[in-house]
Amino acid sequence: MSDAPHVPSEAQSPADQTSAQQKAAQPTAPQPTATQLMSDQPTASQPAAAPKRNVGPLVGALVVGAVLGGASGAGVAAWAVSANNGSHGSVVSGPQTVTINNKDDVTTTTAVAAKAGPSVVTIDVTASSEGGTGSGVVLSSDGYVLTNTHVVTLDGDSASGTIEVTTYDGKLYTAKVVGIDPVVDLAVIKLDNASGLQPIEFADSSKINVGDKVVAIGAPLDLPNTVTDGIVSAVNRSIQIASSAVPNSGGSGDNSTPGDGSSPYNFWNFGDGSGNGNGGNGSGGGSSAGQSADISLPVIQTDAAINPGNSGGALLDSSGKLIGINVAIASTGSSSGSGQSGSIGVGFAIPSDLAQRIGQEIIKTGKGTHGLLGASVTTATSDKSSVVGALIADITSGGAADKAGLKKGDVVTSFNGRPITDSTDLTAQVRTLAPGSTAKLVYVRGDAPTTVSVTLGTLKL
Questions:
Q1: Where do runs of H (alpha helix) occur along 37-107?
Q2: What percentage of the chain reaches a pLDDT higher than 90?
Q3: Is the N or the C terminus of the chain less surrounded, counting Cβ atoms within 10 Å?
């Protein structure tokens, strides 16, 4: 058990890109209306993608890899029980739009794809001789796009990559980074000279149920505008990953692990493939080589097939509204390190409520904000607790936890109505809320549960 504070990263300054917008020729055909959910959108043949190679996926007994494909296999948040490094080649194909051959025989998935497809873009990032491909969702008609931090920074290796975006109808744009939030792996980019784009519609992710139908759209394995479907498998999940975009120093924060890179949750880097961060090189600061820090993410679990390249893409409800930003998958891998498996039906998305708040904050100020409990926490074990939860290991004097009456040794079992089963759950739920938010927290001291109101402080980056 460690009391060392965990320090998330400050959003880095975007690098200016100077190349002009480019547009591809695009033959169009009428898009039939299948159901009332569908928009009248033209189909288009888009330009073929340049060949890329995927390098450096982790493999192991259980791996959760952030779903980014491309030259580097970059942007891979990994959840691994054990891991070795391997490589695999991607299938490369030109983008395809949603094609409806029989308008009298369509499904809900068809309708959702036709409605939301124009709001999902493919993002190609290059830096030096390396690059990667991910996805993004359109926030505004003039070109603000939400995606993952690990997509635009190539796993934290570069804060100055060249970004090119392909829209649903085959248009090409250059783009600049507006800001990143590595604390929850979200970022916003702005397309140059864009207009007339179709913004995504947001749903209330707090109202989704296990079993709800969902549709994922993105660019898995460099195959843009790919549509898959499934259900919500679980809500209120939390995963922990090591982000090389997080700096080594800064303000104190709630801690759930030692934060020294020893966690099995690592980014897949396209450099030496070691799983240790190659380091950020932007003005906002970054990890030095071989070092990383842990972040905890609240996620929606789904069995919709998502794979490397889906990162930053859309997870949609049956009305075609966004309920999550796809961020990670669980996959099995060969212990020999010979390759990476694809989706096994366990994928994760950042809830839309959190994604929308952070996206708006980045557009306004260049970075996101997060709540702070003012405590170091570990996972409760049977030798110290009779219930599962997050054990308070240390309290910051004058912090939110201290003011609420929490003490060292208390076990937090619920936060804002969501069950807390370990330290990752608590850290993820605290980070979901904005500074100054008030939450109901339940803790156990001895055998007595107590409910208190906690007003969160501000995570200093």
A1: none
A2: 52
A3: N
